[in-house]
Amino acid sequence: MKLETPWVVLLVCLLLAGCGGPRGGGGGGGGDDASNLVTCEGDYALISAEYEENVLQGWPNAQFLSDLSEVADCEVIEGSLIIYGTSLTNVDDVSSLTSVGGDLDIGGNDALTNVDGLSSLTEVGGDLDISGNDALTNLDGLSSLTSVGEHLYIWDNDALTNLDGLSSLTSVGGDLLVEDNDALTNLDGLSSLSSIAEHLWINDNDVLCQDSVDAFIAACTIGGTVQDITGNYGSCP
Questions:
Q1: What is the dihedral of CA 219, 224, 225, 226, to 10 degrees?
Q2: Which of 100, 130, 138, 200 has the smallest number of CB atoms closer than 10 Å to its CB?
Q3: How far apart (Å, rounded) are the C-alpha atoms in residues 56 and 37?
């Protein structure tokens, strides 16, 4: 699979996504701390108007947000959260969020400079897609993330220099794609990632050292195949 634009990734995710129900209140019964978390059912989308029809194809019951603060109380989102084509500079309004059961898509947000508001997030049950965010320089806000249940896509983020914010990530349940990040110099932030269940693409990152790519592959268990690791032309130390 060779993905060409953030729009294509969004469309693929929309077509494959499930549907959620309405927003809920607190957690269900049980004696552990997780049961006390504020849980929000269903899927939520903060997007520019042109994507609304496409979102509804994938999530017919999606709740469209006018501001991210509308889900500020959510500690668990059982469905998906889509932040696409907005003018946001940060995602601080979801600083309470600890897990997303479905997909987390953050794409095409030209003014987004950081994802520090996701510092409490520990798991994403579906896909994590970070793409086409031209001003995003790092992923430090994802430092608590330990697992992605399905695919992890990081691509077309022109200012992203490193993946150090993913240093706690240990497993990806589907594919890993790192593509076309023009300023990315190394993969050191993936040093804890020991398992990729399916396929791998690390390609067309103009200043990424190929030795870094090779070292990562040697240290990681890949359940599928290495699809493409070309076009990484950076100078190696």
A1: -50
A2: 138
A3: 28
Distance CA 147, CA 101 (A): 11
Structure tokens at 15: 């077509």
Q: Is 138 helix (H, G, I), strand (E, B) or coil?
A: coil
Residue whose pair of structure tokens reads 């999606």 in the numeric block: 62
**What secondary structure, in 3-state letters, does 176-231 show?**
EEEECCCCCCCCHHHCCCCEECCCEEEECCCCCEHHHHHHHHHHCEECCCEEECCC
* Nearest one of 53, 117, 51, 61 to 86, comparing CA atoms: 51
- Rounded Cα gap, residues 53 and 45, in angstroms: 12
Q: Are 137 and 162 in contact (CB under 8 A)?
A: no
The conformation of residue 164, written as its DSSP 8-state character, comes to G
Domains in the chain: boundaries: 30-228
Q: What is the C-alpha to C-alpha distance for residues 40 and 37, in angstroms, rounded to an integer?
A: 10
The residue count of the chain comes to 237
DSSP code of residue 95: T
Please tell us whether the domain made up of 30-228 is placed in CATH 3.40.50. no
pLDDT digits (tens, 9 = 90+) for 29-79: 444 555 699 999 999 999 999 888 888 887 888 999 999 999 999 999 999
Report d(CA 149, CA 165) in Å as an integer: 18
Q: How far apart are CA 179 and CA 184, in angstroms?
A: 10
| pTM above threshold 0.90 | no
